[in-house]
Specification:
Blueprint (H helix, E strand, L loop, with lengths): L2 E6 L29 E6 L2 E5 L5 H8 L6 E3 L5 H4 L6 H7 L3 E5 L1 H10 L17 E5 L4 E3 L2 E10 L2 E8 L2 E4 L18 E5 L12 H11 L3 E5 L7 H7 L4 E3 L5 E3 L4
Parallel strand pairs: 3-4, 4-5, 5-6, 10-11, 11-12, 12-13
Antiparallel strand pairs: 1-2, 1-14, 2-3, 7-8, 8-9, 9-10
Length: about 260
């Protein structure tokens, strides 16, 4: 069984956003508070982090996260990498290097922004992140967990989703290339981005996300990376049976294998 906890389910601005007095940003429903998108996947006591969102420290504390066996990076936009430096605490706790898995383009951007994290600068763990960068194209294994990267297009930027067992996590997608659809066959639990009702040039809107779910036909599906334009309760009213909006702190499980 694969378990996933949503650390954050919001967009690059987070929700509420700075200087906004809209209904959602002023909502007293805790499900309308959406930090930047990130997730934790757990399989048989091992833990994988998907993206290092800007609020990673707060997210890790809220989720009781104290170990990371590997980091899966979808892409290098700031809302998905802003907590990169907070990985150093896990180096300190574990007294070991941690590997970060991503595609070639993301690796280039991470090396440019976070070069210090990939060097042996200190004779101890915790002074900085101590990370190994691993570029992936094909299925790979982390601590005994097989992971399948799913190529996606975030506008013109090639990014990755990830499949772990029968659970797939796809965020920031606008299109799914033809060669990626077979990699999603048999998915039981699907997580997919859904920004808002209106169309957007680099993200699925609600209709596109629903169409994606209906093509893959998982047992259950959850939306993430949602903006402040629609409340949690309003999103529920827009969705067909079997699709739900996620919220920060929600834990879901795929079917037992």
């Amino acid at each position: 069984m694969v378990e996933l906890t949503f650390l954050g389910t919001g967009t690059s601005n987070g929700v509420p956003i700075i200087g906004c007095a809209c209904e959602v940003c002023r909502s007293d429903d805790p499900r309308d508070t959406r930090s930047r998108s990130s997730a934790v996947v757990r399989v048989d006591g091992r833990t994988l982090l998907i993206d290092t969102a800007t609020e990673l420290r707060h997210q890790a504390l809220a989720a009781g996260l104290d170990r990371i066996d590997g980091v899966l990076m979808t892409h290098a936009h700031a809302d998905h990498t802003g907590g990169f430096d907070d990985l150093r605490r896990f180096n300190e706790l574990q007294q070991e290097w941690i590997s970060v898995y991503c595609n070639e383009r993301t690796a280039e951007m991470l090396r440019e922004r976070y070069a210090y994290t990939f060097t042996e600068q200190y004779p101890f763990f915790g002074g900085k992140p101590d990370l190994r960068l691993v570029e992936v194209e094909n299925p790979f294994v982390v601590s005994g967990i097989e992971i399948t990267p799913i190529p996606l297009m975030h506008g013109r930027l090639p990014i990755l989703g990830f499949r772990v067992g029968d659970l797939a996590y796809l965020t920031d997608a606008k299109t799914i290339p033809d060669e990626s659809w077979p990699l999603l066959d048999g998915v039981d639990t699907l997580v997919v981005n859904a920004l808002r009702e209106r169309a957007h040039p680099t993200h699925f809107n609600f209709d596109e996300a629903i169409a994606t779910v209906q093509r893959i036909r998982p047992r259950q599906a959850f939306l993430t990376h949602m903006s402040h334009e629609t409340s949690h309760q309003q999103i529920i009213a827009l969705l067909p049976e079997g699709i739900s909006p996620a919220f920060d702190g929600l834990t879901i499980r795929s079917a037992a294998e």
